[in-house]
Amino acid sequence: MKYQAPRGTYDILPEDIQKWHYIENIIRKLTSLYNYYEVRVPIFEQLDLFKRSVGEDTDIVEKEMYTFKDKKGRELALRPEGTASIARMVAEHNLQSSKKEPLRLWYEGPMFRYSRPQKGRYRQFYQFGVECIGSSKPIADAEIIAIGWQILQEAKVPDVSLEINSVGCPECREQYNILLKEFLYKDKDKYCADCRRRMEQNPLRVFDCKNNTCRQLIKNAPRMLDSICDKCSEHFEGVKKNLEMMKVPFTVNPEIVRGLDYYTKTAFEYKVNYLGAQDALGGGGRYDGLIEYLGGKQTPAVGLSMGLERIILSLEKSEFLFPEDNNLKVLVIPIGTAALQASIEMMQEFHKADISAIIADESSSVGSNLKLCDKNNVSFAVLIGDNELKSGLYVVKDIKKKAQSEIKKEEVVSFIKNT
Ligand SMILES: [Zn+2]
Ligand SMILES: [Zn+2]
Fold first, then answer.
1. Which ligand is nearest to the CA of 210?
2. Average pLDDT estimate for 178-198
3. What's the 3-state SS for the chain?
């Protein structure tokens, strides 16, 4: 019996891991420059957490979650996204209670959604997120948006566009929902069953429908952005102004609603136009009500999340040359079994000096071991045989320069360090 990874999942092979390290290093660097702290939260949570925060009427909760009961009958779900867990953590540990500065957090890890797999969309996928918790000021929105923008710039993802919108606050949304319902009810029977149900409970979610007929119908719907209250409008103007100060280019797109219930005011997406249907690299928004809704103190917050697969796919499309991970630096080649003890000691000396080194197979010929160095981009080979053991002088070959020296065994490490 030969097994395969489950549908919608994949293995990251050793020759591909450098791509992941490349982007992860940039995320670490940028978040650290802005003083964000990494946190790690569970991969599964109570099912109810996602129902309440992401929203019962969303595609994610209705169709895409991996849910299960544990042996005690608790209803759990693999996390479909990260913000719900972050908000739960902040509420649970009362993290925002005494700090004046906003709490700056980031995370990375696998998320799970049962959707139709296609290029750039998987059932287990990796996401990172950045969350600024405790500030209601537009500068916090702009900071989050700028971090995502800078990460994509630094990673050299070509032709990224940033689109922003405001989805209003609970007060102005109530007004808007009345307008939207009126519009939807005009052609009520033409929408799909999901949309007809969502019209009643949560009309904004009709915008997420992927059905072509529904998408055509909703094109002329009134836009949230035209109905936002003065407070929301003032906030949105502030975000735009701050983004201009930060020299982050953006366009306003009133169609950005994000498929999650917890967003308030700012919503945004980073997009590219060369990935087909999967054109969004990520996005986010403000979620001023979520932490309180999950039992915490009233705490305004704003965050972003992005999929690592799509960033990597964008770079592959542009034929970007990913920097290689550190290669093996030294191959220690024992000539005959008598040299094995000395070769092991030599390797250990390299490791003490933080130089990567392994021992070659002593049953292969020196020639084939040296060929291996060439093939694998190894910088040095150290040859140890009977003569070397007797004289205490080891043969050091500089593979790239094709040079060879005899070096006292005590000085081999410093010789290679200084070459
Ligand atoms: Zn409002
Ligand atoms: Zn529909």
1. 2
2. 93
3. CCCCCCCCCCCCCCCCHHHHHHHHHHHHHHHHHCCCEECCCCCEEEHHHHHHHCCCCCHHHHHCCCEEECCCCCEEEECCCCHHHHHHHHHHHCCCCCCCCCEEEEEEEEEECCCCCECCECCEEEEEEEEEECCCCHHHHHHHHHHHHHHHHHCCCCCCEEEEEECCCHHHHHHHHHHHHHHHHHCHHHCCHHHHHHHHHCHHHHHHCCCHHHHHHHCCCCCHHHHCCHHHHHHHHHHHHHHHHCCCCCEECCCCCCCCCCCEEEEEEEECCCCCCCCEEEEEEECCCHHHHCCCCCCCEEEEEEEHHHHHHHHHHCCCCCCCCCCCCEEEEECCHHHHHHHHHHHHHHHHCCCCEEECCCCCCHHHHHHHHHHCCCCEEEEECHHHHHHCEEEEEECCCCEEEEEEHHHHHHHHHCC
